[in-house]
Amino acid sequence: MTDPVIDPARLARLADVAVNVGLNLQPGQDLVLTAPAEALPLVRAVAASAYRAGAGVVTPLLSDDEVARARFRNAHDDSFDRAADWLYKGMANAFDQGAARMAIAGADPMALAAEDPDKVARANKANSMASKPALERVSTFTINWSIAAFPTAGWARQVFPDLPEDQAVAKLADAIFAASRVDGDDPVAAWAAHNAALKTRSSWLNEERFDALHFTGPGTDLMVGLAEGHEWHGGASTAQNGVVCNPNIPTEEVFTTPHAQRVDGTVRATKPLAHNGNLIEEIEMRFEGGRAVEARSSSGERVLQQMLDSDEGARRLGEVALVPYSSPISQTGMLFYNTLFDENAACHIAMGQCYSKCFLDGANLTAEQIAAQGGNSSMIHVDWMIGGPETDIDGVRADGTRVPVFRKGEWAK
């Protein structure tokens, strides 16, 4: 049964947007769906919408915060170096046979805040290694995939700690529905117009072919070299299976691949990062030759360092994304404690794995070719926000000439 504070009609519209705009699910296509157990109302709505769209089989896989906490409080020590690799191999097999992938976000971002951070880090590392076969199909955009969100009580309590739970859930639901563009008379048309606007931005950046981006702002003076043959994307994209989909519901970004060896300078976060059940605040990093050689934060620094030590590529960038300060998600003034939303409130960079689709002819490049062109490889991909109302960005051409891209947090043209 749907929570009475969540309008079932709006939830049904979100499910339709997720299936028809996010996934663009094809007739006969199977769907692998992951979600927190609390998001079952949206899981059911997505399944109904998917079957109306002609889905073959919808297979839901549910997670639960209490089950996760039970592991940390009761499991033997060696449990934290293991993961269900058989599950991810099965998911990879489904994707290879043509299935689509949908994730519903909404788990309590601080569910593991009271647990041993070393065990959390070990469990996440084991899971990242085990999930690589499935995630490779996503990061290489082999299949059509998408992420949407459901307002669980645990998440709502983090975002609105001073409100009664039902009011917090209702307010988070309103924010999710608005950001996902499902409140108008024709959400599909609204998404078409939004995708067209993002396409205009990414097309201009692709025409300019900048060699680097120079970010400046309070605590930030960062030169981000761009990978050779990089390509900007935003909004709807075409997966390798030929399906045009929107990977993120919502989205406000245009993004591409930095050069893993050509990032230099200092950068300061403009928003906290919720990661592994911890809030990492006031991140500062210094890069040399593409590598983060210094990193600090006012809280959560132990978790930050563990993240950066995940593997060799974790200290290098895999994504740079541009989002104006006037983004609707930014203008809510909310910290969502969820990257799907927070990354769409500000320009951001991501530590770790790059996206092969952000290269010209990326689908036909080998991993070795992507690396040679500057693409990074890692078991992690963690976005953190570096943009705000005082952010300026210059596009730097190969000859050193500069073109204004952002001024005071907004597009310069």
The SS-based structural class is alpha+beta
Total beta strand runs: 20
What value does the Rg take, in angstroms?
20 Å
Q: Low-confidence parts, pLDDT < 50 over ≥5 residues?
A: none
Oligomeric status = single chain
The helix tally amounts to 13
Measured between the Cα atoms of the first and last residue, the distance is 48 Å
Helix content: 25-40%
Task: Kindly estimate the percentage of residues that lie in beta strands according to DSSP.
Answer: 15-25%
What best-fitting shape do the alpha-carbon axes yield?
Answer: globular
Provide a quick synopsis of the model.
This protein is α+β, with helices and mostly antiparallel strands and 413 residues long.
Notes on the protein architecture:
The protein is globular and about 55 Å long. The strands form 5 sheets. It has an 8-stranded antiparallel sheet. Strands 2-1-3-4 form a 4-stranded parallel sheet, sandwiched between helices. Helix 1 (8-23) packs across helix 2 (40-52), helix 4 packs parallel to helix 6 (132-139) and helix 7 crosses helix 8. Helix content is 34%, strand content 24%. It has 13 helices and 20 strands. The mean pLDDT is 95. With 413 residues, the chain is an alpha+beta fold.
Key traits:
single chain; 413 residues; alpha+beta; eight-stranded antiparallel β-sheet; four-stranded parallel β-sheet; 20 strands; globular
Map the helices and strands.
Layout: H1 8-23, E1 31-36, H2 40-52, E2 58-63, H3 65-74, H4 85-96, E3 100-105, H5 117-130, H6 132-139, E4 145-149, H7 153-159, H8 165-179, H9 187-208, E5 212-217, E6 220-226, E7 237-238, E8 244-245, E9 254-256, E10 258-268, E11 273-275, E12 278-280, E13 284-288, E14 291-296, H10 301-308, E15 317-322, H11 328-331, H12 339-342, E16 348-352, H13 367-372, E17 381-385, E18 392-396, E19 402-407, E20 410-411
Helix pairs in contact: 1-2, 4-6, 7-8
